[in-house]
Design a protein that fits this description.
Bound molecules: adenosine-5-diphosphoribose, P-hydroxybenzoic acid
Number of strands: 21
Radius of gyration: 21 Å
Length: 396
C-alpha cells in the first residue's frame, strides 16, 4: 500500500526552477512538496552556469535570499568580445542602465535549500504523474524503498531536460522544436585569479572560447570542441594552450593559469516544447526549453517561468479564476522564444561551424563590427544579455 501525502503543489525537481517556485509559493501562503531524484550534496555541488540577469538578482533579493548573493556575487557592468585582432567592450550600464551578477548556480541552490520552507524529498525514485488532466492529480514515487503517493491540486514539472514531466504531456498535444549545434563546450574551473575583471567572449579561427569566473580566486573557462571529443584527450596543458591561443590578443594581454579542479564537456542545444502545460501539469525551466550557454540565459529563463506560474497559481487560490493559469504557456513562450533567438544569435556569431567558408567568417566579423559600432545594435545585445523586461512578455 502506498502512503498518501497531500499538498497544494507537487514540484518535481530541486533545480533553480523547482526551488524558486517552492519558495515563491511559500511567500504567497501556498504549500508545496519538492521531489528530487538526487541527494542534497549532489545538487549543491553540481557545476553549472553562473550569470544572473538583473531581474533574477532582484527576484532573489525580494525573496529574502540576497545576503550572500550581494556579498559574494560579482557585479559586472559589461562584457568583452574579441575577434580577429579586435576587441570591444559592451558597456551594459551605459547602453541600457543594467548590470549582471556572476554567482554560481550551485550557490543559488545552496541559498535556496538553506531557506526552503517546503519539504524537499531527496532521492525520490521512479517519480510518475497521474490524472493531471483531472481535478486531483497525483504523483507517485518511491523513497527509502517505500511507495508514496502525493495528492495535489497542481503538478509543476521542474525536472530539467531529461525528467519525466514533459513526457507526461500527451504526445498528440506536444510539439518539440530542436536545434543541435555541431560543437560542445569543454569547461574548466581553475584556481587562479581572473585574468579579466569581466567576461571575455572570443571568436577565434580554432573555435570559440569564453573566460568567466566564480570568485576573485577562481576562473571558469570554456572552449568549443568537436562533439566526438573525449575529455581524456584534453590534458590540462592542451586546454591551456587552446585558451591562450583563442583568448590571446596582439596587445600582450595575459591569461593567468592555475590548477584545474573540474573539467566537463557539455552539448550545445536549442530546444522548446509547446505547450508548456496540459491540464494541471505545468512545465518550467529546462523541462520545457534549453538554450545554448552562449547567451547565459538558462537559469534566468527558469526563474522567469516560475514567477509567471506563481502569479497564476496564487490568482487561482485567491480568486478561483483560471485565466492566468490558462495563459501560462503563451505568456512564458513569448519571452522564451526571444531568449532562444538571442542565444542562437550569440552562438552563431561567435562559433566555428562545420563546413563554413572564409565567406562565413568575414560575415561574422562584419556582424561583430556592426554590433560593436552601432549604438542601436549594441543596445539590443545589452538589453537581451541583461534580461528582457517581463512586461514585454505579457503585453497584449
Ligand atoms: N525525479 C525527480 N527529480 C528529477 C527527475 C526525476 N525523474 N529528473 C530530473 N530531476 C531533477 C534533477 O536532478 C535536477 O535537480 O530535476 C532538477 C532539474 O534541475 P535543472 O536541470 O537545474 O533545471 P532547471 O531547474 O529548469 O534549471 C534551469 O538553467 O543554467 C541552466 O541547465 C541549467 O540547470 C539549469 C537550468
Ligand atoms: C559561466 O560563468 O559559467 C558562464 C558565463 C557566461 C556564459 C556561459 C557560462 O555565456
Amino acid at each position: 500500500m502506498a502512503r498518501t501525502l497531500r499538498t497544494q503543489v507537487a514540484i518535481i525537481g530541486a533545480g533553480p526552477a523547482g526551488l524558486i517556485l517552492s519558495h515563491l509559493l511559500h511567500l504567497d501562503g501556498i504549500e508545496s512538496v519538492v521531489l528530487e531524484m538526487h541527494t542534497r550534496a549532489y545538487i549543491e555541488d553540481r557545476v553549472r552556469a553562473g550569470v544572473l540577469e538583473q531581474g533574477t538578482v532582484e527576484l532573489l533579493t525580494n525573496m529574502g535570499l540576497g545576503d550572500r548573493l550581494h556579498r559574494e556575487g560579482l557585479v559586472h557592468t559589461g562584457i568583452y568580445v574579441r575577434w580577429g585582432d579586435r576587441e570591444h567592450r559592451f558597456d551594459f550600464e551605459d547602453l541600457c542602465g543594467k548590470t549582471i551578477t556572476v554567482y554560481a548556480q550551485h550557490e543559488v541552490i545552496k541559498d535556496l535549500t538553506a531557506a526552503a520552507k517546503a519539504q524537499i524529498v531527496y532521492e525520490a525514485a521512479n517519480v510518475s504523474i497521474h490524472d493531471a488532466d483531472g481535478r486531483q492529480p497525483r504523483v507517485r514515487f518511491q523513497h527509502n524503498g517505500e511507495e508514496h503517493e502525493l495528492a495535489c491540486d497542481f503538478v509543476a514539472g521542474c525536472d530539467g531536460f531529461h525528467g519525466p514531466s514533459r513526457r507526461a504531456i500527451p504526445e498528440s498535444l506536444l510539439v518539440e522544436y530542436e536545434k543541435v549545434y555541431p560543437f560542445d563546450w569543454l569547461g574548466i574551473l581553475a584556481h587562479a585569479p581572473p585574468s579579466s575583471e569581466e567576461l571575455i567572449y572570443a571568436n577565434h579561427a580554432d573555435g570559440f572560447a569564453l573566460l568567466s569566473m566564480r570568485s576573485p580566486e577562481v576562473q571558469r573557462l570554456y572552449i568549443q570542441v568537436d562533439p566526438s571529443e573525449n575529455i581524456a584527450a584534453w590534458p590540462d596543458a592542451r586546454i591551456w594552450e587552446h585558451l591562450h591561443r583563442r583568448l590571446g590578443t596582439p596587445h600582450g594581454w595575459l591569461l593567468t593559469e592555475g590548477s584545474i579542479v573540474q573539467k566537463n564537456i557539455a552539448p550545445m542545444r536549442s530546444f522548446v516544447a509547446e505547450p508548456m502545460q496540459s491540464g494541471r501539469l505545468f512545465l518550467a525551466g529546462d523541462a520545457a526549453h534549453i538554450v545554448p550557454a552562449t547567451g547565459a540565459k538558462g537559469l534566468n529563463l527558469a526563474a522567469a517561468d516560475v514567477q509567471v506560474l506563481t502569479r497564476a497559481i496564487a490568482q487561482f487560490y485567491k480568486t478561483g479564476k483560471h485565466d492566468l493559469l490558462t495563459r501560462y504557456s503563451d505568456t512564458c513562450l513569448r519571452r522564451v522564444w526571444k531568449a532562444q533567438h538571442f542565444s542562437w544569435w550569440m552562438t552563431s556569431m561567435l562559433h566555428r561551424f562545420t563546413g563554413e567558408t572564409g565567406y562565413d567568417v568575414r560575415r561574422q566579423w562584419a556582424e561583430l563590427d556592426y554590433v560593436s559600432g552601432s549604438r542601436a545594435a549594441a543596445t539590443a545585445l545589452a538589453e537581451n544579455y541583461t534580461g528582457l523586461p517581463f512586461e514585454a512578455a505579457t503585453m497584449e
